[in-house]
Design brief:
Radius of gyration: 21 Å
Low-confidence stretches: none
Mean pLDDT: 89
Strand content: 5-15%
Strand order of the largest sheet: 1-3-2
Distance between the termini: 50 Å
Largest sheet: 3 strands, antiparallel
Structural class: mainly alpha
Length: 177
């Protein structure tokens, strides 16, 4: 369901072809937020067009279509974004693994925690570059697409790294007993 809103959001930013939209999902959007391939994007674009939420702005060679969002599409995107979000059923394998971490011996748990800290630090380096410059504001006074999400990701990876370091300290306390 969220794919439709991801596509509407991307098209609210600028008109794009299915290929260009798929490229967005191959980048940071797919890495950090939502993954989708051509096999899911094109059928969803067809549904959005059938519902009048997007339309073809132009058609090019080999059937290439550039899609644009309609007023109805903008209204649906807005309604979805303003809808209170409380999450759904939780199914987070990573958190489940962390929940069960104490089932391992201390050495194995430490390996995992060091890996979490190292991965978080690598991602922090990557995201820091993306958010290190001046706040990108368009001529219309809007923030660049994904800017706030990048800031969220930065803080999430900082928290993840800091948690792993804290958890290693907690293991130290347990090992001293």
């Amino acid at each position: 369901m969220a794919l439709r809103y991801a596509l509407l959001g991307l098209l609210a930013e600028r008109p794009a072809s299915g290929y260009e939209l798929a490229k967005e999902f191959e980048g940071d959007l797919g890495h950090y937020a939502w993954q989708a391939g051509h096999n899911r994007i094109y059928p969803e674009l067809a549904r959005l067009a059938d519902e009048g939420l997007i339309e073809s702005a132009e058609e090019g060679a080999r059937g290439r279509r550039v899609h644009t969002i309609t007023a109805a599409g903008l209204a649906e995107l807005r309604a979805w974004l303003l809808e209170p979000w409380e999450g759904g059923a939780v199914r987070n394998e990573g958190v489940l693994r962390l929940f069960l971490l104490s089932a391992l011996d201390s050495a194995d748990a430490r390996k995992i925690l060091h890996a979490i800290a190292a991965r978080s630090e690598r991602e922090l380096e990557r995201i820091r570059d993306a958010v290190s410059g001046e706040t990108p504001i368009s001529g219309e006074g809007r923030l660049a697409l994904g800017w706030l999400a990048a800031g969220y990701g930065l803080r999430q990876y900082e928290a993840s790294r800091d948690w792993a370091v804290w958890a290693l300290g907690e293991l130290d306390k347990a090992d001293r007993r």
